[in-house]
Structures are given as structure tokens and as C-alpha cells.
Amino acid sequence: MNIKAVTVFCGSKPGNDPAYITAAQDLGKLLANNDITLVYGGGNKGIMGAIANACLAADGKVIGIIPKLLLEWEAQHEGLNELIVTESMHARKLLLYEKCDVAIVLPGGMGTLDELFEMLTWNNLKIHNKKVYIINVNGYYDAMIQLLDTMDTQGFMYESWRTRLIECDSIKSFKDALTLALVS
Fold first, then answer.
1. Which fold has domain 5-183?
2. Which of 2, 11, 74, 101 could lock 108 by a disulfide, CB 3.0 to 4.6 Å apart?
């Protein structure tokens, strides 16, 4: 697998656990150090800002994609290699998907979950076959994972969700999974 660009879905707020920001910073550095372009939501606050700033500080390439309606809310990042402004959230999600080889999900809110589930739905419908990794920092996504398991055991999945979503509990475990993906 040749990974040149990764889309990261994450919160525009920092969350209450400092480990979320640390994970974002570590991921930003990891991407830059491996010459992988970061594609993300274009904000300069919260986890979004942390990952972009860390990637840029390590001389990485960062592309932000933000819809017009969020320009004021998310305080778009002014120091990116490229900032793309879309007409709608739908256009944003489509570009976030199109510009990546794989997607990574860090902690976030409803928007992050919307992006995650749209990617998984598209994957399930064979619109794409891109891997989606979830970094479950300090168990942030445990309840969602339990729900996915319940959906599977109750017969609402066409195949195990684990074939579409690769769970990692840390940036180190993601790095190990990424290394495996790069050599296969």
C-alpha cells in the first residue's frame, strides 16, 4: 500500500483529557516524518489545530478543507500549505475522502462521528475501499465500539465492522498498524 495522504477527522475543541492533544501532536509529527500529507478540516482550534501545527512544525505538508459556513466558527488555519473552501459540508466531506489514501479518527464530537460513519458507509457500499483507523485514546470510543459490536451481534451488519475500521489504542499502535499496511 502506498500512503501519500491521510485524512484525519477530529474535534475542533480540545476535549477534557490532555492526552487527546498529545495524540494529535504525535500523529502530526509521525505523518510529517513519513512524508505523508495531512488532510483535515482546516481549523486552527482544538485537536484540529494541534495536529496541523505539529505537522507543520515538523516540516510536513498540510491541506485544510473547510466549508464557507464554518470559516468564522472554526477560525480557519492561516498557515497551511493549502486551504480549500467548499460551498457545503457535503462538498467538504467528499474532498476529505477524495484526497486521502486512508482515514484516521481521533477524539471529536458529532461532526467527527458524522465523518467517520459516512466513510464507513461508503466503504460498506463499495464506493471506496480505503482503510479507516480509529485512535481510541484513553478509551474515548469504547462506548461506540460496544454499540458497533451490538449492531453486529443483533444482525444489522453485512460483515464485521472490524473489517472496515481498524481500532488502535494509541499513536504507537497506529504506527505499528501503518507499518504493516505500508509493507503489504
1. Rossmann fold (3.40.50)
2. 11
| φ and ψ at residue 132, rounded to 5 degrees | -125, 125
Please report, in tens digits, the pLDDT of each residue of the chain (184 residues total): 689 999 999 999 999 999 999 999 999 999 999 999 999 999 999 999 999 999 999 999 999 999 998 886 767 888 999 999 999 999 999 999 999 999 999 999 999 999 999 999 988 888 888 999 999 999 999 999 999 999 999 999 888 888 889 999 999 999 888 776 666 5
Nearest partner of 161 among 178, 141, 180, judged by Cα: 141
For residue 30 the three cell numbers come to 509521525
Contact between 49 and 18 (Cβ < 8 Å) = no
Q: Where in the chain are the domains? A: 5-183
Residue the block writes with cell 500500500: 1
What is the number of H-type helices and E-type strands within the chain?
7, 7
Side chain identity at residue 94, one-letter code: L
**pTM for the full predicted model:** 0.94
